[in-house]
Amino acid sequence: MARYGFAIDTVRCVGCNNCSLTCKVENNLPNEVWWSRAMTVGGEEEFTPGVDGAGNLYLDYYTLGCQHCDNPACVKVCPAGATWKDEETGIVRQDYEKCLGCRMCMAACPYTGVRSFNWEEPSYELDFATGDGAVPAHQKHTVEKCTMCYHRVNDG
């Protein structure tokens, strides 16, 4: 079994969020939806510095996104079977057509903010789709999360 994961050098990360923007474009994510982002240690707002014991400010970055857990809590609580783990790749996937919009997966996930819920029809800055054509269409009343670009993994 192949087991995919992300390798991110957090020492070299400067918080540019280029990885987040690339993800957004590749997956044609709606406005206000981000499946990955670089955060700072000091707070939830972008570029909030931390304070060390001597009162000095510093900026350390960490990336936040779906961890595609070995034993995902989101899979266990999904009443519709819309969230499942692909045993061949280890990628935690979601079927938007099956999603009931109950948000149980969001509540069960130990990583805050890695899933989003589309309360309304998704809206976009551009009047045309971006990214790969194999990406499923985003839908109203559906929970979404990182797909680890399964459409690319599937193509080898």
Question: What does it look like?
Answer:
The structure is a single chain. The chain is α+β, with helices and mostly antiparallel strands and 156 residues long. The protein has a single domain (18-154), classed as Alpha-Beta Plaits. Helices cover 15% and strands 17% of the residues. The chain has four helices and eight strands. The chain has helices at residues 18-26, 73-77, 104-108, 150-154; strands at residues 36-40, 50-51, 57-58, 61-65, 83-85, 92-94, 115-117, 143-145. The protein has a two-stranded antiparallel sheet. It is globular. The two termini are 14 Å apart. The mean pLDDT is 90.
Question: In a nutshell, what does this entry contain?
Answer:
With 156 residues, the protein is an alpha+beta fold. The protein contains four helices and eight strands, in the order αββββαββαββα.
What descriptive keywords fit this protein?
156 residues, alpha+beta, two-stranded antiparallel ribbon
Estimated share of beta-strand residues: 15-25%
What is the CA–CA distance across the termini?
A: 14 Å
Derived from helix and strand composition plus strand pairing, the structural class reads: alpha+beta
Mean pLDDT across residues:
90
Which blocks of ≥5 consecutive residues have pLDDT under 50?
A: none
Instruction: Give the CATH level 1 class.
Output: Alpha Beta
Main beta sheet, described? 2 strands, antiparallel
Give me the Rg, rounded.
17 Å
Give the domain tally: 1
| Cα shape | globular
CATH topology: Alpha-Beta Plaits
Number of DSSP helical runs: 4
Spatial ordering of strands, largest sheet = 1-4
Total strands: the figure is: 8
What's the CATH architecture? 2-Layer Sandwich
Query: Helical amount among residues, as a percent range?
Result: 10-25%
Q: SSE string, helix = H, strand = E?
A: HEEEEHEEHEEH
